[in-house]
Amino acid sequence: DADVTQTPRNRITKTGKRIMLECSQTKGHDRMYWYRQDPGLGLQLIYYSFDVKDINKGEISDGYSVSRQAQAKFSLSLESAIPNQTALYFCATSDVDSTGELFFGEGSRLTVL
Amino acid sequence: GNSVTQMEGPVTLSEEAFLTINCTYTATGYPSLFWYVQYPGEGLQLLLKATKADDKGSNKGFEATYRKETTSFHLEKGSVQVSDSAVYFCALSSYNQGGKLIFGQGTELSVKP
Lengths: 113, 113
Description:
Radius of gyration of chain B: 14 Å
Number of strands of chain B: 12
Strand content of chain A: over 45%
Strand content of chain B: over 45%
Number of helices of chain B: 0
Largest interface: A-B, 23 and 24 residues
Distance between the termini of chain A: 32 Å
Oligomer: heterodimer
Helix content of chain B: under 10%
Largest sheet of chain B: 6 strands, mixed
């Protein structure tokens, strides 16, 4: 099994719908991240959490919210999806002492019609 | 703010050709530098890293040297294989940004037999 698991892997939804992407990890890391990948733009940080009680906005948090339910679980929500949120979303984890090494899930491809 | 710029892709090479993917960065202080690779349908994984000036990171035949004087971290491989076809991301992490990774836009590499 993968160390960082994302569900769903693919989702098609309609404008205005609420959608949740879930991430769970078995690496025992305290730090978790949500990134968005768009062609030609690389990865942009949406939210990150350094422990269960710590939630921080990244570069592009507008239109998104997160919940850190436990050390191992970090979910991303789109309260009212819009077409320009169509993208590939990645969850990642890191250790406190990692000096920047992240461990990524396989991604969740979201299409908003 | 801190930023990373990569050469644009796609880059198309024949098998056994020499590869260079350019990466330059802007950062205050002394960032750590990384190359991540994303194979088709997968999440990103760390390829190599360097944490201080003049360090050389290497893995799977790939190399990159941290050049502070030119603020660069170019990725090289002497002889590419079809299996190296992927998207390559340069990234930096700095203490003054809480260790979060900042990614370049990615460079797609396609190796033909």
